[in-house]
What does this fold into?
Amino acid sequence: MDFLHSEIGSAKDNSKSPIHNWYKFTAGFSYKFVEQIINLESLKTKKRAKIFDPFAGCGTTLVSSQKEGICAVGNEGQEFMYNIIRAKLNWWMHDDEFETCIQFILSELQNSSKDSNQLFHPLLKTLYSKSTLFQLYAIRDAIMKIKSTKYQLFFQLALSQTLHKVSKYPIAIPYIARGKPIVNPGKAWNTFEKVSRQMLQDSKQPENKILTSRVYLHDSRKENKNIKKNSCNICITSPPYLNNLDYGEVSKVHTHFFEITKSWNDITNKVRKNLVTGATTHYVQSDFHIQDFVRSEFYCSNIQLGDYLLSKAALIQKSAKRKSGKKTFDFLTLLYFQDMYLVLKEIKRVLTPKGTAYLILGDSAPYNVHIPTTEILGEMGQAVGFKDYKIHKIRTRGMKWKTLTHRHSQKLNENVLVLR
It folds into this structure.
Protein backbone atom coordinates (compact mmCIF):
# COMPACT_ATOMS: atom_id res chain seq x y z
CA MET A 1 0.00 0.00 0.00
CA ASP A 2 2.60 2.48 -1.17
CA PHE A 3 -0.08 5.13 -1.76
CA LEU A 4 -0.42 5.77 1.98
CA HIS A 5 0.84 9.14 3.16
CA SER A 6 0.71 11.10 6.41
CA GLU A 7 -2.51 12.96 5.50
CA ILE A 8 -4.53 9.98 4.28
CA GLY A 9 -6.09 9.63 7.73
CA SER A 10 -7.22 13.27 7.82
CA ALA A 11 -9.96 15.17 5.98
CA LYS A 12 -7.65 17.82 4.47
CA ASP A 13 -8.07 16.50 0.92
CA ASN A 14 -11.86 16.58 1.28
CA SER A 15 -11.93 20.35 1.80
CA LYS A 16 -11.04 20.86 -1.87
CA SER A 17 -13.25 18.17 -3.35
CA PRO A 18 -16.84 18.96 -4.49
CA ILE A 19 -19.58 17.20 -2.51
CA HIS A 20 -17.08 15.98 0.08
CA ASN A 21 -16.54 19.57 1.21
CA TRP A 22 -20.23 20.24 1.77
CA TYR A 23 -19.68 19.54 5.45
CA LYS A 24 -16.37 20.22 7.19
CA PHE A 25 -15.55 17.24 9.38
CA THR A 26 -12.00 17.33 10.71
CA ALA A 27 -12.22 13.84 12.24
CA GLY A 28 -12.76 12.23 8.82
CA PHE A 29 -10.32 10.63 6.39
CA SER A 30 -9.29 11.37 2.81
CA TYR A 31 -11.56 10.45 -0.08
CA LYS A 32 -8.36 9.51 -1.92
CA PHE A 33 -8.01 6.51 0.39
CA VAL A 34 -11.33 5.14 -0.86
CA GLU A 35 -10.37 5.76 -4.50
CA GLN A 36 -7.05 3.97 -4.02
CA ILE A 37 -8.69 0.94 -2.42
CA ILE A 38 -11.20 0.80 -5.28
CA ASN A 39 -8.29 0.73 -7.73
CA LEU A 40 -6.25 -1.69 -5.61
CA GLU A 41 -9.11 -4.17 -5.44
CA SER A 42 -10.03 -3.58 -9.11
CA LEU A 43 -13.65 -3.05 -8.08
CA LYS A 44 -14.48 -1.19 -11.29
CA THR A 45 -14.12 -4.46 -13.21
CA LYS A 46 -16.35 -6.43 -10.85
CA LYS A 47 -19.99 -6.26 -11.86
CA ARG A 48 -21.30 -7.00 -8.37
CA ALA A 49 -18.75 -5.00 -6.40
CA LYS A 50 -20.18 -3.45 -3.24
CA ILE A 51 -18.54 -1.51 -0.41
CA PHE A 52 -19.62 -1.42 3.23
CA ASP A 53 -18.95 1.35 5.76
CA PRO A 54 -20.21 0.68 9.32
CA PHE A 55 -19.23 4.21 10.43
CA ALA A 56 -20.48 6.35 7.56
CA GLY A 57 -19.75 9.66 9.37
CA CYS A 58 -20.11 12.43 6.81
CA GLY A 59 -20.23 9.99 3.89
CA THR A 60 -16.65 9.87 2.58
CA THR A 61 -16.79 6.19 1.61
CA LEU A 62 -20.35 6.30 0.26
CA VAL A 63 -19.86 9.50 -1.76
CA SER A 64 -16.51 8.35 -3.18
CA SER A 65 -18.02 5.01 -4.21
CA GLN A 66 -20.97 6.70 -5.90
CA LYS A 67 -18.68 9.08 -7.79
CA GLU A 68 -16.98 5.98 -9.17
CA GLY A 69 -20.34 4.39 -10.02
CA ILE A 70 -19.84 1.59 -7.48
CA CYS A 71 -22.53 0.33 -5.10
CA ALA A 72 -21.98 1.02 -1.43
CA VAL A 73 -23.97 0.78 1.77
CA GLY A 74 -23.36 2.16 5.23
CA ASN A 75 -24.63 2.67 8.75
CA GLU A 76 -24.60 5.91 10.71
CA GLY A 77 -25.84 6.17 14.29
CA GLN A 78 -26.31 9.96 14.45
CA GLU A 79 -29.48 11.33 12.89
CA PHE A 80 -27.86 14.65 11.98
CA MET A 81 -24.90 12.99 10.21
CA TYR A 82 -27.28 10.53 8.57
CA ASN A 83 -29.17 13.45 7.00
CA ILE A 84 -25.91 15.03 5.84
CA ILE A 85 -25.03 11.83 3.99
CA ARG A 86 -28.48 11.62 2.40
CA ALA A 87 -28.08 15.17 1.11
CA LYS A 88 -24.62 14.45 -0.28
CA LEU A 89 -25.68 11.27 -2.06
CA ASN A 90 -28.52 13.11 -3.82
CA TRP A 91 -26.10 15.73 -5.13
CA TRP A 92 -27.55 16.44 -8.59
CA MET A 93 -29.79 19.49 -8.68
CA HIS A 94 -32.01 21.06 -11.35
CA ASP A 95 -31.45 24.79 -11.82
CA ASP A 96 -35.13 25.70 -12.08
CA GLU A 97 -36.14 23.70 -8.99
CA PHE A 98 -33.21 25.17 -7.07
CA GLU A 99 -34.30 28.73 -7.97
CA THR A 100 -37.90 28.01 -7.01
CA CYS A 101 -36.81 26.72 -3.61
CA ILE A 102 -34.33 29.46 -2.77
CA GLN A 103 -36.76 32.21 -3.80
CA PHE A 104 -39.42 30.57 -1.64
CA ILE A 105 -37.03 30.55 1.34
CA LEU A 106 -36.19 34.24 0.77
CA SER A 107 -39.87 35.14 0.53
CA GLU A 108 -40.63 33.30 3.78
CA LEU A 109 -37.72 35.07 5.48
CA GLN A 110 -38.90 38.50 4.32
CA ASN A 111 -42.43 37.79 5.53
CA SER A 112 -41.32 36.53 8.93
CA SER A 113 -42.26 38.67 11.88
CA LYS A 114 -39.24 39.88 13.84
CA ASP A 115 -41.55 40.27 16.79
CA SER A 116 -42.38 36.58 16.81
CA ASN A 117 -42.16 34.66 20.07
CA GLN A 118 -39.62 32.23 18.65
CA LEU A 119 -37.75 30.50 21.48
CA PHE A 120 -34.05 30.34 20.68
CA HIS A 121 -32.02 27.61 22.34
CA PRO A 122 -29.82 28.99 25.17
CA LEU A 123 -26.63 27.53 23.65
CA LEU A 124 -27.31 29.22 20.31
CA LYS A 125 -27.92 32.57 22.00
CA THR A 126 -24.27 32.55 23.06
CA LEU A 127 -23.02 31.99 19.51
CA TYR A 128 -25.06 34.37 17.36
CA SER A 129 -26.45 37.88 17.51
CA LYS A 130 -30.21 38.17 17.96
CA SER A 131 -30.78 39.36 14.37
CA THR A 132 -28.61 36.56 12.96
CA LEU A 133 -30.37 33.97 15.05
CA PHE A 134 -33.76 35.24 13.90
CA GLN A 135 -32.74 34.84 10.25
CA LEU A 136 -31.23 31.39 10.83
CA TYR A 137 -34.41 30.13 12.48
CA ALA A 138 -36.59 31.72 9.79
CA ILE A 139 -34.53 30.06 7.05
CA ARG A 140 -34.73 26.75 8.88
CA ASP A 141 -38.51 26.96 9.21
CA ALA A 142 -38.89 27.88 5.53
CA ILE A 143 -36.78 24.89 4.47
CA MET A 144 -39.03 22.58 6.46
CA LYS A 145 -41.96 23.73 4.28
CA ILE A 146 -40.27 22.51 1.06
CA LYS A 147 -42.19 19.43 -0.08
CA SER A 148 -39.29 17.66 -1.79
CA THR A 149 -37.21 15.69 0.75
CA LYS A 150 -34.22 15.88 -1.57
CA TYR A 151 -34.21 19.68 -1.74
CA GLN A 152 -35.12 19.98 1.91
CA LEU A 153 -32.03 17.98 2.88
CA PHE A 154 -29.90 19.92 0.39
CA PHE A 155 -30.80 23.30 1.88
CA GLN A 156 -30.55 22.00 5.44
CA LEU A 157 -26.98 21.01 4.67
CA ALA A 158 -26.30 24.47 3.22
CA LEU A 159 -27.74 25.96 6.41
CA SER A 160 -25.47 23.70 8.50
CA GLN A 161 -22.46 25.21 6.75
CA THR A 162 -23.92 28.66 7.33
CA LEU A 163 -24.08 28.02 11.08
CA HIS A 164 -20.29 27.70 11.06
CA LYS A 165 -19.70 30.79 8.97
CA VAL A 166 -21.87 33.32 10.83
CA SER A 167 -21.04 32.41 14.42
CA LYS A 168 -19.41 34.92 16.77
CA TYR A 169 -16.75 32.30 17.53
CA PRO A 170 -14.82 29.82 15.34
CA ILE A 171 -16.61 26.48 15.21
CA ALA A 172 -14.08 23.74 14.58
CA ILE A 173 -15.00 20.16 15.45
CA PRO A 174 -15.06 19.05 18.18
CA TYR A 175 -14.93 22.36 20.07
CA ILE A 176 -16.04 25.98 19.82
CA ALA A 177 -13.10 28.40 20.19
CA ARG A 178 -14.81 30.87 22.53
CA GLY A 179 -11.51 32.55 23.34
CA LYS A 180 -11.12 33.82 19.77
CA PRO A 181 -14.16 36.00 18.95
CA ILE A 182 -14.74 36.85 15.28
CA VAL A 183 -14.88 40.62 14.70
CA ASN A 184 -17.26 40.64 11.72
CA PRO A 185 -19.28 37.41 11.39
CA GLY A 186 -20.98 36.83 8.05
CA LYS A 187 -24.59 37.83 7.37
CA ALA A 188 -27.01 34.92 7.65
CA TRP A 189 -28.96 35.24 4.39
CA ASN A 190 -26.04 36.34 2.23
CA THR A 191 -23.91 33.49 3.53
CA PHE A 192 -26.69 30.93 3.14
CA GLU A 193 -27.38 31.95 -0.46
CA LYS A 194 -23.67 31.95 -1.33
CA VAL A 195 -23.16 28.50 0.16
CA SER A 196 -26.27 27.14 -1.56
CA ARG A 197 -25.23 28.44 -4.98
CA GLN A 198 -21.72 27.07 -4.58
CA MET A 199 -23.20 23.68 -3.74
CA LEU A 200 -25.36 23.93 -6.87
CA GLN A 201 -22.22 24.47 -8.96
CA ASP A 202 -20.44 21.62 -7.19
CA SER A 203 -23.31 19.28 -7.97
CA LYS A 204 -22.67 19.64 -11.70
CA GLN A 205 -19.11 18.26 -11.55
CA PRO A 206 -19.48 14.51 -10.87
CA GLU A 207 -20.34 12.61 -14.04
CA ASN A 208 -22.33 9.89 -12.30
CA LYS A 209 -26.00 10.80 -11.86
CA ILE A 210 -27.17 7.43 -10.53
CA LEU A 211 -27.78 6.72 -6.87
CA THR A 212 -25.51 3.74 -6.14
CA SER A 213 -24.95 4.28 -2.42
CA ARG A 214 -27.35 3.99 0.47
CA VAL A 215 -27.11 4.85 4.15
CA TYR A 216 -29.13 3.54 7.10
CA LEU A 217 -29.71 5.22 10.46
CA HIS A 218 -28.32 2.28 12.38
CA ASP A 219 -25.94 1.30 15.18
CA SER A 220 -23.27 -1.04 13.76
CA ARG A 221 -22.97 -2.90 17.04
CA LYS A 222 -26.24 -4.54 16.00
CA GLU A 223 -27.12 -6.55 12.91
CA ASN A 224 -28.68 -4.44 10.17
CA LYS A 225 -31.23 -6.75 8.60
CA ASN A 226 -31.46 -4.44 5.57
CA ILE A 227 -27.89 -5.45 4.63
CA LYS A 228 -27.72 -9.09 3.64
CA LYS A 229 -25.08 -11.55 4.79
CA ASN A 230 -22.08 -11.91 2.41
CA SER A 231 -23.37 -9.00 0.30
CA CYS A 232 -20.26 -6.77 0.16
CA ASN A 233 -16.76 -7.32 -1.23
CA ILE A 234 -14.94 -4.62 0.70
CA CYS A 235 -15.29 -2.68 3.93
CA ILE A 236 -13.69 0.79 4.07
CA THR A 237 -14.11 2.71 7.30
CA SER A 238 -12.54 4.62 10.15
CA PRO A 239 -13.99 3.64 13.55
CA PRO A 240 -14.05 6.08 16.44
CA TYR A 241 -10.64 6.34 18.09
CA LEU A 242 -10.41 5.39 21.76
CA ASN A 243 -10.78 8.52 23.90
CA ASN A 244 -11.29 10.86 20.97
CA LEU A 245 -14.36 13.11 20.69
CA ASP A 246 -15.39 13.03 17.03
CA TYR A 247 -18.31 15.44 17.44
CA GLY A 248 -18.25 17.02 20.87
CA GLU A 249 -19.66 20.49 21.47
CA VAL A 250 -20.24 21.24 17.79
CA SER A 251 -22.67 18.34 17.55
CA LYS A 252 -24.90 20.09 20.07
CA VAL A 253 -25.01 23.25 17.94
CA HIS A 254 -26.52 21.34 15.03
CA THR A 255 -28.76 18.92 16.88
CA HIS A 256 -30.19 21.67 19.09
CA PHE A 257 -30.71 24.01 16.13
CA PHE A 258 -32.53 21.40 14.07
CA GLU A 259 -34.40 20.27 17.22
CA ILE A 260 -33.13 16.70 17.11
CA THR A 261 -32.14 17.32 20.72
CA LYS A 262 -33.06 19.98 23.26
CA SER A 263 -31.00 19.08 26.33
CA TRP A 264 -27.98 17.23 27.66
CA ASN A 265 -30.30 14.34 28.50
CA ASP A 266 -31.39 14.19 24.84
CA ILE A 267 -27.74 14.12 23.72
CA THR A 268 -27.17 11.11 25.97
CA ASN A 269 -30.32 9.17 25.10
CA LYS A 270 -30.84 10.09 21.44
CA VAL A 271 -27.24 10.36 20.25
CA ARG A 272 -24.57 8.79 22.45
CA LYS A 273 -26.44 5.55 23.16
CA ASN A 274 -26.33 4.80 19.43
CA LEU A 275 -22.54 5.20 19.19
CA VAL A 276 -19.56 3.02 19.98
CA THR A 277 -18.29 3.99 23.45
CA GLY A 278 -15.38 6.21 22.43
CA ALA A 279 -15.27 8.77 25.25
CA THR A 280 -16.09 8.93 28.97
CA THR A 281 -19.11 11.09 28.20
CA HIS A 282 -20.74 8.13 26.43
CA TYR A 283 -21.60 6.22 29.60
CA VAL A 284 -22.57 6.66 33.23
CA GLN A 285 -19.78 5.52 35.55
CA SER A 286 -22.16 4.01 38.09
CA ASP A 287 -23.70 1.79 35.39
CA PHE A 288 -20.42 -0.03 34.69
CA HIS A 289 -19.51 -3.21 36.56
CA ILE A 290 -16.50 -5.43 35.91
CA GLN A 291 -18.72 -8.47 36.48
CA ASP A 292 -20.79 -7.47 33.44
CA PHE A 293 -17.65 -7.22 31.34
CA VAL A 294 -16.40 -10.71 32.26
CA ARG A 295 -19.85 -12.08 31.45
CA SER A 296 -20.01 -10.32 28.08
CA GLU A 297 -19.94 -12.18 24.78
CA PHE A 298 -16.64 -10.49 23.95
CA TYR A 299 -14.85 -11.68 27.10
CA CYS A 300 -16.29 -15.20 27.01
CA SER A 301 -15.17 -15.56 23.38
CA ASN A 302 -11.74 -13.95 23.93
CA ILE A 303 -10.65 -14.75 27.50
CA GLN A 304 -6.93 -14.27 26.85
CA LEU A 305 -7.49 -10.96 25.10
CA GLY A 306 -10.04 -9.95 27.70
CA ASP A 307 -7.55 -10.61 30.50
CA TYR A 308 -4.96 -8.54 28.65
CA LEU A 309 -7.39 -5.61 28.52
CA LEU A 310 -8.23 -6.05 32.20
CA SER A 311 -4.52 -5.78 32.98
CA LYS A 312 -4.32 -2.60 30.88
CA ALA A 313 -7.35 -1.22 32.71
CA ALA A 314 -5.66 -1.90 36.04
CA LEU A 315 -2.56 0.00 34.87
CA ILE A 316 -4.73 2.92 33.76
CA GLN A 317 -6.48 3.01 37.13
CA LYS A 318 -3.12 2.93 38.95
CA SER A 319 -1.76 5.73 36.76
CA ALA A 320 -4.93 7.77 37.31
CA LYS A 321 -4.44 7.63 41.08
CA ARG A 322 -0.85 8.88 40.74
CA LYS A 323 -2.00 11.75 38.55
CA SER A 324 -5.14 12.45 40.61
CA GLY A 325 -7.09 11.91 37.40
CA LYS A 326 -10.86 11.78 37.58
CA LYS A 327 -11.61 10.24 34.18
CA THR A 328 -12.58 6.56 34.18
CA PHE A 329 -10.38 5.66 31.22
CA ASP A 330 -10.07 2.12 32.60
CA PHE A 331 -13.81 1.56 32.14
CA LEU A 332 -13.74 3.34 28.79
CA THR A 333 -11.05 1.01 27.43
CA LEU A 334 -13.02 -2.10 28.31
CA LEU A 335 -16.29 -0.74 26.95
CA TYR A 336 -14.66 0.45 23.72
CA PHE A 337 -13.24 -2.95 22.79
CA GLN A 338 -16.38 -4.73 23.92
CA ASP A 339 -18.34 -2.56 21.49
CA MET A 340 -15.79 -2.90 18.68
CA TYR A 341 -15.98 -6.69 18.95
CA LEU A 342 -19.67 -6.47 18.04
CA VAL A 343 -18.87 -4.14 15.12
CA LEU A 344 -16.23 -6.56 13.78
CA LYS A 345 -18.80 -9.36 13.95
CA GLU A 346 -21.16 -7.26 11.82
CA ILE A 347 -18.40 -6.46 9.31
CA LYS A 348 -17.57 -10.18 9.03
CA ARG A 349 -21.25 -11.02 8.52
CA VAL A 350 -21.70 -8.48 5.73
CA LEU A 351 -18.53 -9.34 3.78
CA THR A 352 -18.21 -12.21 1.31
CA PRO A 353 -15.93 -15.13 2.32
CA LYS A 354 -13.10 -13.55 0.27
CA GLY A 355 -13.89 -10.01 1.38
CA THR A 356 -11.39 -7.58 2.88
CA ALA A 357 -11.82 -4.85 5.49
CA TYR A 358 -9.70 -1.68 5.57
CA LEU A 359 -9.88 0.27 8.85
CA ILE A 360 -8.07 3.53 9.60
CA LEU A 361 -7.24 3.48 13.31
CA GLY A 362 -5.24 5.35 15.90
CA ASP A 363 -3.56 4.02 19.04
CA SER A 364 -4.21 5.70 22.38
CA ALA A 365 -2.49 6.33 25.72
CA PRO A 366 -5.03 7.12 28.46
CA TYR A 367 -3.13 8.36 31.53
CA ASN A 368 0.10 7.47 29.69
CA VAL A 369 -0.74 3.76 29.37
CA HIS A 370 -0.23 2.73 25.75
CA ILE A 371 -3.15 0.89 24.15
CA PRO A 372 -2.16 -0.69 20.79
CA THR A 373 -5.67 -0.38 19.36
CA THR A 374 -4.79 -1.58 15.85
CA GLU A 375 -3.11 -4.78 17.03
CA ILE A 376 -5.90 -5.54 19.50
CA LEU A 377 -8.56 -5.11 16.81
CA GLY A 378 -6.49 -7.26 14.47
CA GLU A 379 -6.54 -10.08 17.03
CA MET A 380 -10.25 -9.52 17.59
CA GLY A 381 -10.78 -9.71 13.85
CA GLN A 382 -9.30 -13.19 13.80
CA ALA A 383 -11.52 -14.11 16.75
CA VAL A 384 -14.67 -13.28 14.75
CA GLY A 385 -13.52 -15.28 11.74
CA PHE A 386 -11.10 -13.26 9.60
CA LYS A 387 -8.17 -15.35 8.40
CA ASP A 388 -5.36 -12.90 9.10
CA TYR A 389 -4.48 -9.23 9.42
CA LYS A 390 -1.79 -6.77 8.43
CA ILE A 391 -0.96 -3.33 9.80
CA HIS A 392 0.31 -0.47 7.63
CA LYS A 393 1.55 2.60 9.47
CA ILE A 394 0.39 6.00 8.18
CA ARG A 395 2.04 8.41 10.59
CA THR A 396 3.04 9.18 14.18
CA ARG A 397 0.44 11.26 15.98
CA GLY A 398 -0.15 12.99 19.30
CA MET A 399 3.16 14.87 19.40
CA LYS A 400 1.54 18.31 19.33
CA TRP A 401 0.72 17.77 23.02
CA LYS A 402 4.33 17.09 24.09
CA THR A 403 4.69 20.54 25.69
CA LEU A 404 1.62 20.00 27.89
CA THR A 405 2.64 18.32 31.13
CA HIS A 406 -0.87 17.00 31.89
CA ARG A 407 -0.97 15.05 28.61
CA HIS A 408 0.67 11.69 27.91
CA SER A 409 4.22 11.47 26.55
CA GLN A 410 3.63 8.51 24.24
CA LYS A 411 4.29 8.46 20.51
CA LEU A 412 1.15 7.07 18.95
CA ASN A 413 0.68 5.49 15.56
CA GLU A 414 -2.11 5.97 13.07
CA ASN A 415 -2.48 2.87 10.93
CA VAL A 416 -4.50 1.02 8.36
CA LEU A 417 -5.65 -2.38 9.61
CA VAL A 418 -6.33 -4.86 6.80
CA LEU A 419 -8.49 -7.85 7.71
CA ARG A 420 -8.76 -10.62 5.14
